[in-house]
Amino acid sequence: MHRSRLTRAVFLTLFVGAVFFGIWLIYKLGNEIQNIQTADQTPPLWLGSQLPLELLRLQNNLNEVAFGYKPAADVVLHFDIAWSRINVLQEGKLPQILANLEIDQGVLTDLEAIFTTLEPQIQGLTASSMTDEVRRQKTMTILAALEGFDVPLKKFLLAIARADNNARVEFRTGILSLSHAIAYLGATILTLFGIFVFLLMIELRAAKDTENEMRKLAQDATSASRMNMNFMSVVSHELRTPLTSILGGLALLNVRIRKTSTDESTIKLLDIASRNGDRLLMLVNDILDAQALSDGRVSTERNPVNLNEIVATAVENCNVYAEQLGVAYCVTTENEKVVALTDSARVTQVLFNLLSNAAKFTSSGDVVKVNVRRNKQMARIEIIDKGIGISAEQQDNVFSPFHQINPGISSGIKSSGLGLSITKQLMDLLGGEIGVSSNEGEGSMFWIELDLVPAEHDSRKFSPVLLISGSN
Amino acid sequence: MDIQRIMRAALASSLFVLPTFGFAQAILTVTNFETSATYTLEELLAMPQTTVVTKNDFVEDLTTFQGPSLRSVLNDIDVDRTANLKMVALNDYASKVPASDAFTYDVILAVLRDGEVMSVRDKGPIWVIYPMDDNSELQREIFNSRLVWQLKSISVE
Asked: Is residue B152 a contact partner of residue B134, using CB atoms and an 8 Å limit?
């Protein structure tokens, strides 16, 4: 865990570093592009090389005019063109570029000065009154004045050529470093992607590990509770056999003692022993039932059943227990048969649980009401007691396992807390509904609902009603 | 020898006559294969004028150029917009320019710079000007070579 955290920290640092490197590269890239754009926008230096060329042309023209091959106007034109070349190099961006490249522009000013002095003479050549001889002499003078610029102009040209070459090299270097920057950027992006994927994988692995751990924990918890249940089941099974023998022995002993002895205290002790033995047996049975239900080992066999009869049977079964508590049942049924397609044994078990519960929570001398009615397409059985009731908060949990409501100090009755849970699971198994409504201190009403059988099934013969079986 | 003398005399007289008619001299020839047109400075000034205010590498500051649009001159002799133009300067410098430039942008044959006629010494009499300040794409190096000054002739290639 510590190592994975360290790896993550290292990669995160790398990631952040790569991001900053990428930002720096992009910034540098922008600069490079700016440089190249500036280089691209620089006016070409070869413009400077045009000056010596035009000067040469002027000299040529002067020669030709001197020998009368060309009109003097041509000299004027080429003089102007040559002068324009000086001007081009002294206007706009070019003088700045030449200065930046440290090219000596002295030759330009010298040439301009000569041009200014020569201008009247050049213009004079076009005078019509001039004889050929005079014109020749004048052109020769002009030519002589223009001489001596060869060397400085050549130097100027050379400097320009060198600067131009340097500019090209610089441009190429710029392009090269640009391409390098792009390559680095590409590599950085790839690295970033790689780190990202790696981090993602680490995260995924960690998440998977956590998930596995959780799953194992859940499994452990499930198996622990299963083991617990299994243990209880085994213990209960082992308890039931000797318990049955004890209870049988106690019953026989009870009969004999009552015949021979009149000792009240002995009889009372025997009664206490058999009552507690019965309770222990009930508890063991409940545990076995709950285990069977949670394992899905309980099956149902559905037949058309007259619920009136079932209720009558269940009440009959419970009567012995209720009488001990001094509680009576008051059953109200419909006149007609109330037929449901269900498992009579299971419904009896449910009703037995609810009825004994109701008796348990009813004070001695009171009555538990049992109603069987039709409610639209449903058969509804209500068991109404006048016990302590269940608070609103507890009504939600009343069907969960091991939930117990203190039946009150006076009654001294205890239960396994499994009864209602088993009842609820049985109702779920039968596809019916179970519910409770209660006001604390006024009593409770537990009800179950089962689907009624459509009319055509009514003619069927009913299966005999079975007593509940303790366990499977 | 006689012939040579006569020629020189003719030359001299032409030189004498030239300045007199100088103001009406054709300064631009536009050729589209068989068709061609010539323009004097006055004729160019008499055409509908377009003004372009721009900078370029060869002027110091923002400058106002005025002259007929290259488009109108090309239209005069039905030059196709896909044609390639050869622009020749007084010193026979030649630059190839696609005619589409003239139809896409307000390229002008500037004859006035800040309201004044341009001398040969000052890149005149005609300077091809692109509206570079209005179209940033024209500020690339390639368009610098299309700013032909001392323009003499345009021909379709």
From this structure: no
Provide the Cα torsion A201, A206, A207, A210; round to 10°.
160
Structure tokens at A328: 């009576």
Lowest mean pLDDT among A39-53, B51-65, B84-98: A39-53
What does DSSP say about strands A378-384 and B26-32: parallel, antiparallel, or unpaired?
unpaired
Rounded CA separation A314/A348 (Å): 6
Q: For residue range B82-110, list pLDDT tens digits in order.
A: 888 899 988 888 889 898 888 888 899 99
d(CA A340, CA A449): 10
How far apart CA A352 and CA A374 sit, in angstroms, is: 21
DSSP-derived 3-state class of residue B85: strand
**Chain A 31-90, CB below 8 Å of chain B: which residues?**
40-44, 50, 54, 57, 68, 71-73, 77-78, 80-81, 83-84, 87-88
Classify A297 as helix, strand or coil.
Answer: coil
Do A126 and B19 lie within an 8 Å CB cutoff?
yes
pTM beyond 0.80: no
B119 min Cα distance to partner chain A (Å): 8
H or E element that contains A350: helix A344-360
String of DSSP letters for A410-460: TT-----S-HHHHHHHHHHHHT-EEEEEEETTTEEEEEEEEEBPPGGGGGS
